[in-house]
């Protein structure tokens, strides 16, 4: 395995880091003030539009998609350290058109969408003209088992009629959200993994109701995480992505790369938390000595560095595998990083909060916001327990000689 970045990837690293230092970090406080001064948090702050224009002019746009027709065409391994850099702040990913759930939705449309679907929805997403949402989780069932998804999609002539509820639909509250990818049940009598389909539903379709915006530990993101109600929502049958019954196949293809992105952004957040912890420990004194001289604080700092280095190598290996053999053949590694990344990041952020004392749980630092959303990541894209179950199942098969290791 060779994780040495190409010269091109190193160049993108340097350019992105310069963009962060020169434009993004100075814009953080402006962004926050513009959001707080608005009557609703679900806005598009003007400063973000300025950052988007700057990112495009610097060629830092659509970095996530490994297709040179729509961006630089970086591999997952080349993109991984860029995602880490962007993960250090809330606004960098959107500034470069690399934020969830749009990245996953664009990958779905790029890989599975019809030419008409690509022209109508993918291209405006790639151009940053619109935003999107992804509706899978439901309030009435345990959605960690996706076979439980109940929203019905019944064929009626040339249309599908949708009825049901969704929640934690990220992106739907953004003022530029125009399209949802919705997972629902099209054939209850089919094989358990062929009952579900993914369908494109324009946000202004009659019968689609935004019930409420859901807070994350009291925070309302600008893009929101909404509860939705579908009542007789009619869309053309041609809005089905790929084909009826392909929902699970598409979900797996969508979530693999997205988990690499999430994990690298988590590393970026944890790295920033570690920097803040060290700076605070040096700046504050207790009982006549800097906090950084205390043995337990030094243990926390050392453990953070060790764990971050291990985690980064683990994610690099996973990205390298996906580049070489595809996400389907790297499922154990993808599951493993999805468990490890938010848990390690949470521990580091929590300790940084502790070192900051009261300031750590306020909005004077980014730590409380980081913690709230990193805790959510232990549930998003599958809870820890589901990933561990998958890892254990594959390990038992391997130990029994029923399945050979990939490498």
Automatic annotation (TrEMBL):
Its cofactor is FAD. Residues 245-394 form the Acyl-CoA dehydrogenase/oxidase C-terminal domain. It holds the Pfam family Acyl-CoA_dh_M. Residues 133-233 form the Acyl-CoA oxidase/dehydrogenase middle domain. The keyword Flavoprotein applies. SUPFAM superfamilies: Acyl-CoA dehydrogenase C-terminal domain-like, Acyl-CoA dehydrogenase NM domain-like. Keywords: FAD, Flavoprotein, Oxidoreductase. The keyword Oxidoreductase applies. Residues 7-129 form the Acyl-CoA dehydrogenase/oxidase N-terminal domain. It comes from the Bacteria. Homodimer. Belongs to the acyl-CoA dehydrogenase family. This is Acyl-CoA dehydrogenase family protein. It comes from Conexibacter stalactiti. The lineage of its organism: Bacteria, Bacillati, Actinomycetota, Thermoleophilia, Solirubrobacterales.
